[in-house]
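A reminder before we start the practical. When you read a complex entry, don't treat the lines as separate problems. The point of joint prediction is that each chain is placed relative to the others, so the output describes one connected object in space. Small molecules and nucleic acid strands, if listed, are placed in the same frame. In the example below there are two entries. Take a minute to note the order of the lines before looking further.
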Amino acid sequence: MLLIKCPWCGERAETEFSCGGEAGITRPANPDSLTDAEWADYLFMRKNPRGAHAELWNHSLGCRRWFGVERDTVTYRIAKTCKLSPGKTD
Amino acid sequence: MNYSAFSLLRNALSHNRGWREAWRSPEPKRKYDVIIVGGGGHGLATAYYLAKEHGVRNIAVLEKGWIGGGNTGRNTTIVRSNYLWTEASLLYEKSMQLWEGLSQDLNYNVMFSQRGVYNLGHTLQDMRDIERRVNANRLNGIDAEVVSAAELRKSIPYLNTSPEARYPIIGASLQRRAGVARHDAVAWGFARAADKLGVDIIEQCEVTGINRAGGRATGVETTRGTIEADKIGVVVAGNASVLASMAELRLPVESHPLQAFVSEPLKPVLDTVVMSNAVHGYISQSDKGELVIGAGIDAYTGYGQRGSFPTIEHAMQAILELFPVFSRVRMLRMWGGIVDVCPDACPIISKTPVDGLYFNCGWGTGGFKATPGSGWVFAHTIAEDRPHELNEAFDLKRFETGALIDEHGAAAVAH
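Here is the predicted structure of the whole assembly.
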């Protein structure tokens, strides 16, 4: 069982949270001029790293706010959690 | 040595001292025509069919651990082909046909047991989806039928078909040709058969880099030195993204732990396979008597071959909803495999932007059943440098064209 520290509510069990996947995926600024390959990259391609991973999580059964998590995908150790600030995704 | 009743007898008379290792452990050569990265069922099947169907003789299979130690030995051994969409069902049906002759073909008993697979329906909408899938299967020449709760009561006596159940069971789809196979035997059988055709199976050999020159793959760096190759096929399941990044490719897959469990051995109590989409669990009984149980993936990505406790709890709740009689059965072991899940729950069996580099990945939670078929079409793709018509639709390009094959939910979900 992961113990995840919500930046607002403190440490809670993983069952209160939902994982939103890879952080730092930026919505294209100019969608009209994107090629099919660029769309595919934005929509589907993922880093899926073995090791340190920056993720978005939602405290869905708590305050329902999104926050950032830095988690190791092999050991599952959470290095840190942080509030998201506008324009900043890591 | 050919396995037969005669060889059993002869070796019994010599106190079983005459048995040889099932495959050699050769030193890697400097260069191969084809290198298969990943010595799981799919990789070994690819090497076997490359040698058998396409006459390629100079092949190596590189495995970072040992044969049968990855997902091939970590699944719930279910084999079926009742997928909804034509592209998927024809691919899995090809695999099913290969399963039906596999023990003879490999001269190795893979214990393929066509004991039937039931996919339960708990709501009116479930039953409509089941009827649609059964009809789609039959149009594609795949055996499928709809069965009622009354028939379920007769064929699976311990299943809780009471209308008082929290999620009452009102019917199911049944594929009679579906069933289970012995997963280790599949890996060992393919390894032995490929080795017999001259394939070098090299264990304890981890690929650490993919060498390229002028847009073409030229070989791999490994923990046992550099090995050159004309063509490289990568079939590494959960580690597909790691291998892709070695060639600066990006894949649309994410790796998740998928858990399975076995109970202590019981006397025969369940002679078929039962899967439920709604409560999300699946169960069968092995020849040793253990209940083999599986459920869904862990919600977050991970490469640790273990899963989380909430997922275990969820799986057990689902099984007890179906079979209250198992409430006092003790679980013996649990384990996790790393599955690479595609956005459309269908595999990628494809050429890549790098010439001579091929990927077979994205099988997600349902790869075991496809083992022979996956190897068969991937061997064709590598040998001919173009996909077989059965895997044309499973190209990496479908994420650009938008021609996804959405088997999420459609394919009786729980793999």
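Discuss with your neighbour: Chain A is about 10% helix and 35% strand. What might explain this?
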